[in-house]
Amino acid sequence: MRPRELASIERARFGPLRTLNVRVSLLSGEESARRVESWLRSKQVELSGDVLIITGRGAGSIGGVPVIKESTLRVLNRLRRAGVIHAFGEDTAGSFVVQLAPLRSLLEAPARRKGSRSSLPKTKANIQGLKSETRDQLHYLASRAIDALGVKKPSESQILTEMERHFSVFARTAPVGVDIDRWLNSAISRALIEYAEEDR
Questions:
Q1: Residues facing 21 on adjacent strands
Q2: Domains of the chain, start order
Q3: What is the mean pLDDT of residues 11-26?
Q4: What pLDDT is stored for residue 60 in this prediction?
Q5: For residue 122, how far is the Cα from the chain centroid?
Q6: DSSP label at 63?
Q7: How many CA atoms lie within 13 A of 102 on its CB side?
Q8: What's the CA gap between 191 and 80, in Å, rounded?
C-alpha cells in the first residue's frame, strides 16, 4: 500500500478532529515540534481518548534522517512527563497514536525542572479580565483541586494562587482567536467532571 493511501486510511479512522498531519506542512523540525505541542495541549482540553499525528517516515529528508518524526518523538516524551499525554506509540512507520491524559494530570503535574521550557507563548491575559461567572467556576475548581491534595480550609490567598495557576495552564492551550471565557469554561467543566468521577 502506498504511503498516501495509508495516510488516507489513518485520517478516516480517526477523523479530522483527531488527526494532525505535520508531514505535508513542509515545516522544519523545530516548527513542527511547536505545532505538535500546541495541538496536543489544545486537544487535551477539547477531547479524551486517542489522537493521530502523521509525521511521515523521513524518506525524502536529507540523508534519510526523519527530522519531523524525531522532533515529534522528543515532544511526545516531554508532554508525557508534563501530564499532557498518557501514552503514545507508533501506529505506522510514519505516524503516532497518542493517548491524551486527563486534565487532572496536567493540573497536578509537578513543576517543570529548571531549564525545561514549553514552546507555547505566555499569555498576557489575567483572571481579572474574565467574566464573573468564569472566575466563580475557576474559584470552585481551585478549591476542589486543593481539597484533593488534602488541604483543609485553604486561605483565599492559596485559592487565588491556584486559580492563577489553572488559568495560566488553560489559557495557554487556547487556539488563536478563541473566546477565552468559553474555552476556560469548557476546560473547567471537564476538569470538574474528572474530579467528580474520582470521588465515586
A1: 54
A2: 3-102 (3.30.1370.110), 121-199 (no CATH)
A3: 82
A4: 58
A5: 15
A6: G
A7: 13
A8: 18
Residue 56 identity = G
CA proximity to 34, closest of 98, 122, 120: 120
Rg (the chain; Cα; Å):
18
> What DSSP designation does 114 have?
T
Q: Could you give the CA distance from residue 58 to residue 42 in angstroms, rounded to a whole number?
A: 26
Nearest residue to 184 via CA among 165, 163, 170: 170
pTM for the model stands at 0.78
The C-alpha cell at 104 is: 487532572
Q: Answer yes or no: are the C-beta atoms of 154 and 143 closer than 8 Å.
A: yes
Number of neighbours of residue 165 by Cβ within 10 angstroms: 14
In whole angstroms, what is the distance from residue 16 CA to residue 39 CA? 13
